[in-house]
Amino acid sequence: MVTLARALRALCAWGPLGLGLAAGCSAPAERCEGERAAMGTLFRIVLYAPDAESGARAIEAAFARIAELDAALSDYDQESELSQLSARSAQRTPSGPVPLSPELWTVLGAAQTLARESGGAFDVTVGPYVLLWRRSVRQGELPASERLAQAARAVGHAKLCLDAERRTAELLAPDMRLDLGGIAKGFALDEALRVLRARGIEAALVDGGGDVAVGAPPPGRAGWRVELDPLADPSGARGLRLELAHAAVATSGDAYRSVEIDGRRFSHIVDPATGLGLERRIVAAVVAPLGMRADALATAACVLGTDAALALVESIPGVEILIGESDPRSPSGAVEWRTSSGLARLLSAPKGR
Ligand code: AMP
Ligand code: MG
Predict the structure, then answer these.
(1) N or C: which terminal CB in the chain sees fewer CB atoms within 10 Å?
(2) For residue 140, with 0-12 CB atoms within 10 Å meaning exposed, 13-18 middle and 19 or more buried, which class applies?
(3) What is the pTM of this model?
């Protein structure tokens, strides 16, 4: 069966090797590639460098940056900067201002911006709900209402206060738990590209488990081909191919990780309004100038649902979305696909032509 999630899995396709190597082409044209596990997924980097050696060194530096961010932003690791920040809320209420590293500051700032824009659909304070979801996976039952109510006291983006001048965060409720699972990977993509750019490598693609950020196009091309396969036609007959430069695309969906309890399926994406995993069948692919923005918006779009997600995306310049939703009660499971008004401009020629 083709699930919604599979239908939107992003596959990266790049053009025939050697393009741009023609005589007279002065652009760096050694194609280099590397893979590394991080953040619970597989990262892949493809770039064009002046020579193989500098390309390989740049790839190593980018992976080192991703590993550094993994260590700082993980909510699984009790030693991470993020976990240490959350722990402050258990020690004192309110926590008092806690100084942030530049990276945690950047990610929390972007998260809070989107929390406001999305009316709280995207909310990195959902950690206590995510813990309850993980418990449901282990125990096969929904959380008791008292547990949900207790978690709710520690959730809410207004309980996370950022001070832009001092670059500090303050947690206003006890036992808060921040979770950057919906945004950190996108930031890692951006930072990997930044590390490559600092080494003079502009033409690069970074893929983190299907979420992709690209810099300048490969030599001789207008963009990197990123295939959302098979999108509009889940039978697989035809995929949608985007041609992207200096942009990112991220996909979120209810079916990537979910738990089934009493015949109901709950996604790992939680609705901050209920504390429970989403039950709607939805998948969204968002294109944005930054990976961090694409990642977070894709998660937010799933919480918002098709109409509200389209309205949000249309209000943000430079952002596009493809979103598919099906009625979980419909036996056919037919998916209604919708796109934002500017997505068509990013399409390259359809497959096979
Ligand atoms: P993604 O796979 O990018 O959609 O992110 C899903 C992850 O984001 C989950 O595994 C949680 O760690 C976290 N998360 C879940 N619900 C939300 C939400 N409503 N807002 C922000 N992050 C969330
Ligand atoms: Mg996300």
Answers:
(1) N
(2) exposed
(3) 0.91
